[in-house]
Known about the structure:
By secondary structure, the chain is an alpha/beta fold. The protein has helices spanning 14-28, 40-49, 79-87, and strands at 3-7, 33-38, 57-61. It has a three-stranded parallel beta sheet with strand order 1-2-3. Helix 1 (14-28) packs across helix 2 (40-49).
Amino acid sequence: xxxxxxxxxxxxxxxxxxxxxxxxxxxxxxxxxxxxxxxxxxxxxxxxxxxxxxxxxxxxxxxxxxxxxxxxxxxxxxxxxxxxxxxx
Length: 88
């Protein structure tokens, strides 16, 4: 059985919500398995929507997005800290 690795950014829940629908479509219309790669919160959210496919879906935890870092109490990006986050 072939497996599709599906990476979802861990920024907000809009990406995982849309991706869960896409993954469900893939599972309903193929014999592929899917490995969903995202952070813990995103994976936990997807597990609810994909629970009927638990035998065909696996989850891997990874940080998939380097969020911008803002100066405290502002909307100004801390460029140096953001660059450090991207490097990590």
